[in-house]
């Protein structure tokens, strides 16, 4: 499967009109499904970035909102006209019109082949993360990691050994917890990006709008 960062605090691919902004969104393409994980803050920026990356919003079949902060769900209203056949997985009932199925997530569950949500993880803000089974092992995709990166990594092990993590780490700084991972891609709100890169130069993967990660 292929991940494309479509909304982030930084731009990875320069010169093609991609915009950075505080927030996070990542599109996941499998051979069968198109899933959008979070929607950034501003729907216009989200749509601009998708267009520049040749991603068609009409193809989105599932949306997962990690948590109910504006920098993760803010793009939804602008996106909603494109979502006539879309399932939305979030931690609260969803008031949007025109959406066929709203799934209010509590327990871990499968979203589609090789993709599961951790279900509601308790934290200062409750959050869900995705567990992705790639060709080389299991990965975690997180929004802000408010429940804590260690908690998320621990919970995610239910689908297998975790080899990588992608997403916002917030103020996480117990860097030894990342030691065994083969892919560390801190995005968005990660406060200690530089420290993580310094400690794990081999496994650190830069994030930013336009970055593609093959799992
Ligand atoms: Zn955030
Ligand atoms: Zn947040």
Strand numbers in spatial order across the main sheet: 6-5-4-3-2-1-13
DSSP strand content: 25-35%
Q: Name the CATH superfamily classification.
A: Ribonuclease Z/Hydroxyacylglutathione hydrolase-like
Distinct small-molecule ligands in the complex: zinc ion
CATH architecture name: 4-Layer Sandwich
CATH topology: Metallo-beta-lactamase, Chain A
Q: Summarize the helix and strand pattern as letters.
A: EEEHEHHEEEEEEHEEHE
* SS-based class: alpha/beta
Average residue-wise pLDDT: 95
Overall radius of gyration: 16 Å
Name of the CATH first level: Alpha Beta
Query: Helicity, in percent?
Result: 10-25%
Distance between the termini: 5 Å
Low-confidence stretches: none
What about the largest sheet?
A: 7 strands, mixed
**Oligomer category:** single chain
Count of discrete alpha- or pi-helical segments spanning 4 or more residues: 5
Overall spatial form: globular
Number of domains: 1
Q: What is the number of strand segments? A: 13
Describe it.
This protein is of the alpha/beta class and 215 residues long. The protein has a single domain (2-214), classed as Ribonuclease Z/Hydroxyacylglutathione hydrolase-like (Metallo-beta-lactamase, Chain A, 4-Layer Sandwich). The chain is 15% helix and 27% strand. It has 5 helices and 13 strands. The chain has a 7-stranded mixed beta sheet. Strands 7-8-9-10-11-12 form a 6-stranded mixed beta sheet, with helices on one face. The chain is globular, with a radius of gyration of 16 Å. The protein starts with a strand and ends with a strand. The mean pLDDT is 95. One zinc ion is lined by residues 24, 69, 71-72, 144, 168, 188-189.
